[in-house]
Fold this sequence. Notes:
This protein has 4 helices and no strands. The protein is mainly alpha-helical. The N and C termini lie far apart (68 Å).
Amino acid sequence: MRVHALIRLAVILSAAGLTTAAWAASADDFNAAYTKAEAAENQAGTLKTQWTTTEDALKAAKKAADAGNFDDAIKHAQQAEALANASIAQAKEQATAWKNAAIR
């Protein structure tokens, strides 16, 4: 009985994956992702902690969007947002980490 339930679940999940794969990302989806990434990058800039890899990911997102490949563009924008957020987290951590450093 348990095996049948697992098989049913696998079939349902694979069918759900096929239907979501059929929905291609749109320019609006890209714009939303890119706006979030830019906002995070601007916040990193305010903290003076921007990473060059974030800028590269934003450029790649824009290039993919200009070519009409919104799925890749969104992936690059999400990567840029993650990098920007990581640079912000690093800046905040480093702002207090110096207090723990041993002076020799």
